[in-house]
Amino acid sequence: MDLFSGITFKDMALKNRIVMAPMCQYSAGDQGYAEDWHRIHYSTRAIGGVGLILLEATAVEPRGRISARDLGIWSDDHVPGLQSVVNLCHEYGSKVGIQLAHAGRKCDVETESIVAPSAIAFNEKYPVPEALSIAEIQGIVEAFAKGARRALAAGFDTIEIHAAHGYLINEFLSPLTNQRQDQYGGNLENRTRFLGEVLAAVRQEWPLHKPLIVRVSAEDYVPQGNHPEDLAETLKLLKQYEIDLINVSSGAVVPAKIEAFSGYQIPFAEVIRTMTGIPTIGGGLIDGPEMAQEVIKNGRSDLIYLGRELLRNPYWTIRAGHMLGAEVPWPYQYERGK
C-alpha cells in the first residue's frame, strides 16, 4: 500500500490515493452555473494525474451559498454545466465528486436571509442568523436530497456531504453553535440528528453501490467544542447510512487560534479511522511527496487530500511519482518533458 497504489470504494476505482480537496473558486455567476473556469481548472488537475477530484462547496439552495459566486445545484438547470466538468475530468482519467453544502450562518450573499440552528452570529462582521424552525430544517434536508439526485444525473462518481468548517451541518454538530432546546439540540445524539436526516434523505437518491463521503471538522480548537473523539462518536451513530469515507479537516466553526503546520490534521484522521473503522481522507498543508507517502504506508489515512499545493502545481502528482520512483503515466503530449 503506497501513494500510487489503486483503491476501490463501492463502484469507484481510484488509480492512486491523491485527492484534490474542495476549494471555492468564486467563479460562478450569481445564478451558480459552472463556467469555462471550472472546466479548465478541474480538468487540468485530471491531466495532472489526480486520482479523485472533489468539486468545491456547491449550494443546495440559494441561501446556502458562501458567496454570491459559488456553484449551485438547487436547480435542474445546473446539471448540464456540472456534467460538462465531470465529462472532461473523466476523459483525462480522474474520478470526480461534488461537495453538497449549505453555508448556514456563514452565507455572505447580501440578498439572502441567514439561517442557523441558533440565533448566534459567527463574529461581529456577520449578521445574527434566524434560528431555523423544524419545518425549515426538513426543507433543507429535502434540498440535500434533490442535490444528490442532480449529482447522479450529472454523472458524479461520489458525493461529499459538507459537515465541516462552520457551515450549517457543522453548526448543528458543535455545542458552540447549537443551543437548541428541541430534538435537534442538547446531547450528542440530538446534535447529530440533522446530519443523520440529511444522510437518510440523500441515500434515498444516491444508490448504495456508489460511495458516499462526509467531511467533518474534527477539532473546534475551543475546550468546550468538539474534538476528534467526539466526531468519532458522532460518526458511529451514522454507520447505518453506509458512509464510505470521512474527509477529516478541522476548525472554522467559531473564530479560534489554529497552529497550522505540515500534516497538522493527520492525527485527527488517525483517531477517527481507529475509532470508527471507516476509511479516511487526511491532509492539512501537506506539500512533499515523502510526507504523503509516509501517511499512506503507515496506515495513518487511506487517501491524502491536497489543496493549496494543487493550486500552485496542478502536475504535483506527476512530479511526486518521479520523486518516489513510481511508474506514473504522463499525458503523451507532455512526454518530451519527462
Describe the structure.
The protein has 338 residues and is of the alpha/beta class. The protein has a single domain (19-282), classed as Aldolase class I (TIM Barrel), CATH 3.20.20.70. The protein is 33% helix and 16% strand. The protein has 10 helices and 13 strands. It has an 8-stranded parallel barrel with strand order 3-4-6-9-10-11-12-13, surrounded by 5 helices. The chain has a two-stranded antiparallel sheet with strand order 1-2. Strand 10 (212-217), helix 6 (228-236) and strand 11 form a beta-alpha-beta unit. Helix 1 (36-47) packs parallel to helix 2 and helix 6 (228-236) runs parallel beside helix 7. The radius of gyration is 19 Å and the shape is globular. The two termini are 25 Å apart. The mean pLDDT is 97.
